[in-house]
Amino acid sequence: MAHVYNRVALIGLGLIASSMFWAMKRGGLAGEVTGYARSAETRETAREIGLCDVVYDDITQAVEGADLIVLCVPVGVMGQVMEQIAGSLAQGATVTDVGSVKRAVIDQVTPHLPEGVHFVAGHPLAGTEHSGPKAGFAELFDNRWSLLVPSEGTDPKATAKLRALWEGMGANVEEMDADHHDLVLAVTSHAPHLIAYTMVGVADDLRRVTDSEVIKYSAAGFRDFTRIAASDPTMWRDVFLSNKDATLEILGRFTEELFALQRAIRQGDGDHLFEYFTRTRAIRRGIIEAGQDTDAPNFGRGAGSKT
Ligand SMILES: NC(=O)C1=CN([C@@H]2O[C@H](COP(=O)(O)OP(=O)(O)OC[C@H]3O[C@@H](n4cnc5c(N)ncnc54)[C@H](O)[C@@H]3O)[C@@H](O)[C@H]2O)C=CC1
Ligand SMILES: O=C(O)C(=O)Cc1ccc(O)cc1
């Protein structure tokens, strides 16, 4: 495929940046890919494993002359990074990000955006519980959604080019409004992560009573929770602090339903439980019938998948 961009700069060389690098190389989507990471150790690892064509020690050098700059850092520092690079961006360049929250990132980044530089926020709905420069693999985005959130007044050509990059990396692209994105993700990703963190925390408390039995005999459901609860603490701290309103709204509803189920168990109300579980089972079946079961064996996952 012809290059979509001549020079792409990846800022923050972790799971998502490294997966983007390998996916861009697989598809021949970028002429040159430069990189910058805050820690010298990460930059050294990146050089050792051939992650990026050039890794710079100076963030401004990494973005100079780039026609696409991708911010792949935790959502709490997106604005800070944008401020650092603002003076070194080429006219006509596009800045995007991959953060799990969109409204807070747009609000942080936009004030630092120079005249003549486009910002198109983004979020690939693909990841694993692993982090760091060695965690990435080219197939991460295959058959996954990547959401784009162009700001008002964004040049449609800048958005179209970014769409072509994500499609070249294997993703299906959809445009979405920032607030809607944050509410949808609170339901499908942020609240579930918090619930997994909580469940593993409860089991950890219990472990002191039951010794290591919780881990030894853990069934698939709990194992899934432990996988999710092994995700990067900095990233997830930032997600919850940046998507506060939507997450609290969903957790409020979750708590109400949990109390109702708790009461049904206490009162022996089997009909309530049965009806509830019948409804939730139908949702799962709907997902499978719609062909959206991304957990099915080999659905959109390559050999290098770490999930
Ligand atoms: N991990 C996942 O499953 C997914 C993560 N995301 C989003 O992608 C972004 C990156 O996540 P990952 O690649 O998983 O994280 P990661 O932890 O693997 O990599 C993040 C990198 O950013 C660097 N960094 C942190 N603060 C920095 C700063 N101030 N300046 C420069 N570099 C800095 C870290 O040192 C690290 O190298 C986050 O915003 C996250 O919300 C989006 C989709 C999935
Ligand atoms: O590993 C998992 O189960 C995930 O849920 C990955 C993930 C984490 C954060 C995102 O913003 C998008 C995807």
UniProtKB/TrEMBL annotation:
InterPro entries: 6-PGluconate_DH-like_C_sf (IPR008927), NAD(P)-bd_dom_sf (IPR036291), PDH_C (IPR046825), PDH_N (IPR046826), Preph/Arog_dehydrog (IPR050812), Prephen_DH (IPR003099)
The keyword Protein biosynthesis belongs to this UniProt entry's keyword annotation: no
GO molecular function annotation: NAD+ binding; prephenate dehydrogenase (NAD+) activity; prephenate dehydrogenase (NADP+) activity
Keyword Oxidoreductase: yes
Catalytic reactions of this protein: prephenate + NAD(+) = 3-(4-hydroxyphenyl)pyruvate + CO2 + NADH
Domain (Prephenate/arogenate dehydrogenase): residue spans on this chain: 6-295
Functional pathway: Amino-acid biosynthesis; L-tyrosine biosynthesis; (4-hydroxyphenyl)pyruvate from prephenate (NAD(+) route): step 1/1
Transmembrane segments annotated in the record for this chain: none
Pfam family, one: PDH_C
Keywords: Amino-acid biosynthesis, Aromatic amino acid biosynthesis, NAD, Oxidoreductase, Tyrosine biosynthesis
GO biological-process terms attached to the record: tyrosine biosynthetic process
Domain of life: Bacteria
Enzyme Commission numbers on file: 1.3.1.12
Similarity-based family: Belongs to the prephenate/arogenate dehydrogenase family.
Protein name according to UniProt: prephenate dehydrogenase
Phylogenetic classification of the source organism: Bacteria, Pseudomonadati, Pseudomonadota, Alphaproteobacteria, Rhodobacterales
